[in-house]
Write a structure and sequence with these properties.
Layout lengths: L7 H22 L1 H9 L2 H7 L2 H36 L6 H25 L5 H24 L2
Pfam family, one: DUF1761
InterPro entries: DUF1761
Keywords: Membrane, Transmembrane, Transmembrane helix
């Protein structure tokens, strides 16, 4: 079965590292421009959200990070196996990188661009979110590729 070939230790590590990367990307590196345009006045937001809601949000995001890691691991395994069936080199990291960028574009751009189109967020929010996803998917690729 496909799920039995997944390295669940790598899933655990990439799930946690996704959270760390997200914190560093959005709360440290791009904190001021991102938070101002994403959330507006942070003092209002912090005072109106209860601690239990914040904890629930964090736990939900942890679960989503693990699901993303599992889904990426499955896609990468299918891509490697497809190399034999469709005559491309599934064993080259450079080819896997472009496959990863295709996945990142196909699955994250609709959500990041949607923030501009439907939520009327700034292009800075779109750029920070999109660049985070590109870096995160590259991190996932490198960890799953080299952690055999």
């Amino acid at each position: 079965m496909l799920l039995s070939s997944i390295n669940y230790w790598a899933v655990l590590v990439t799930g946690i590292l996704s959270l760390v990367l997200g914190f560093l990307w959005m709360a440290v590196l791009w904190a001021k421009p991102y938070q101002r345009r994403m959330y507006g006045n942070m003092n209002q937001t912090d005072s109106t959200v209860s601690t239990s809601v914040k904890i629930q949000s964090f736990v939900l995001y942890i679960l989503v990070s693990f699901v993303t890691s599992i889904a990426f691991a499955v896609c990468l395994e299918l891509w490697k196996a497809g190399g034999q069936a469709f005559a491309y080199d599934g064993e080259r990291l450079s080819n896997a990188f472009w496959f990863t960028m295709l996945l990142a574009a196909g699955y994250t751009l609709p959500f990041t661009i949607g923030k501009k189109v439907w939520q009327f967020k700034s292009w800075i929010v779109v750029a920070v979110d999109t660049s985070y996803e590109i870096v995160r998917f590259t991190m996932l690729l490198l960890i799953f590729w080299y952690w055999v």
